Structure formats: structure tokens, C-alpha cells
Amino acid sequence: MLIEKVLKGDDHAFRLLVEKYRNDVFRTVFAVLRDQKEAEDAAQEVFIKMYTSLPQYEHHGFKTWLTRIAVNHAIDIKRKQTKRKEEIVEIPEEQVIAIPPQDGVEKVMIETDRRRLVRKKLNELPENYRDVIYGFYIEEKSYQQMAKEQNVQVKTIETKLYRARNWMKKNWKEDDFS
After folding, report:
1. CB atoms < 10 A from the CB of 142, how many?
2. 110 with 167, same domain?
3. Number of domains the chain is built from
4. pLDDT digit string, tens, across residues 103-120
5. What is the rounded distance in angstroms from the CA atom of residue 55 to the CA atom of residue 7?
6. How many angstroms separate the CA atoms of 29 and 42, rounded?
7. What is the domain extent for residue 76?
8. pLDDT for 43 beyond 80
């Protein structure tokens, strides 16, 4: 059996194991990450994890065991990406108070509160909408730029923005921002 050969250090057996399961692993991580390059990198990392965890494998349902490693790894990557995006949305206070001093302390405080509220509201958006709203309105990216970055069609970005705007109209009131 391939697994025993891999455990004994047979590199060829490991290559055969990777070859046999690479499409399954790729499809699994892609289903979570939704990005081809990220999924390719993650799939390679899954096989490294599989190799290092193989001594703990209990010889029951190898494909299921490998799929579980792939799913857990992809979820970990997704969490890290989400955390990074949240950190990006958090604008340091020094940058928020970039209003000329002639406006007075009161205006600075009002503007600071308003920006804080907008950031809070952005974080309430569903994740798939938050990305396009933040990219389009805050980072001022074009549809084409966002489509390229997210590895999707321009029409997908248009649809996401349309749905995000409808979500905001439905869930937010103007009073929420005053």
C-alpha cells in the first residue's frame, strides 16, 4: 500500500499519492477559498501537512482524512484573510484626525465620530459585499481592478455592488449615520 511505502521514506510513493489526490484536494480548498492561486498554494501546503501527519493516520478512510486536513487548512487561511481585511478597515486614529486645525475641536470630534460610525457600519456588511464596497468606495478601485484581484468577471463585481447597495438600502437608514 502507498501509505506504508511513504511512511518508510519512499519518495516515489509520495509522488503517486499526491498525483492520485491532488485534484480532490485542490477542489476542496478552492471551494473554501474561491481563488485559484490561493487554492494552488493551499493544496501544496495540505500535502506537506499530510506528509508530516501521516504517522498519526489510523488507516481508516484515507481520502476522508486528507479532505479533513484540506478543509481545516483552507478555513484557517480564510480566517487569516478575513482578519487581515478587518485590520485594513481599521484606520488608525492619527489618520482619522487629519482635519485642518482652523475647523476647531468640535468639528474634528464630529468628523472622527462620523468616520468611526462608517467603519462600524462597513463591518456590519456581509463579507462578500464588504469587499466590493470597501474596494470601490474607500479604495476607489475600478470594476476591472477588483475583478482582476478577486479572479472573477467584471459582471460579478457589478452584480456584487448592485446587491450590496440594495442590502444597504434595505438594512440601513439615513438616521443610522447621524
Report:
1. 12
2. yes
3. 2
4. 556 666 677 777 777 777
5. 7
6. 7
7. 2-85
8. yes
Residues 128 and 75 in one domain: no
65 near 21, Cβ under 8 Å? no
| 98 and 170, same domain (yes or no) | yes
What does the block give as the cell for 93?
A: 486614529
- Are residues 129 and 111 located together in one domain of the fold? yes
φ and ψ of 88, to 5 deg = -65, -40
| Average pLDDT value for the chain | 81
> Cα angle vertex 54, ends 49, 59, to 5°?
135
Q: Residue 120: its pLDDT value, please?
A: 76
CATH of the domain at 172: 1.10.10.10
Q: With a cut of 70, say whether residue 178 has pLDDT above it.
A: no
pLDDT over threshold 70, residue 177: no
Q: Are 141 and 131 in contact (CB under 8 A)?
A: no
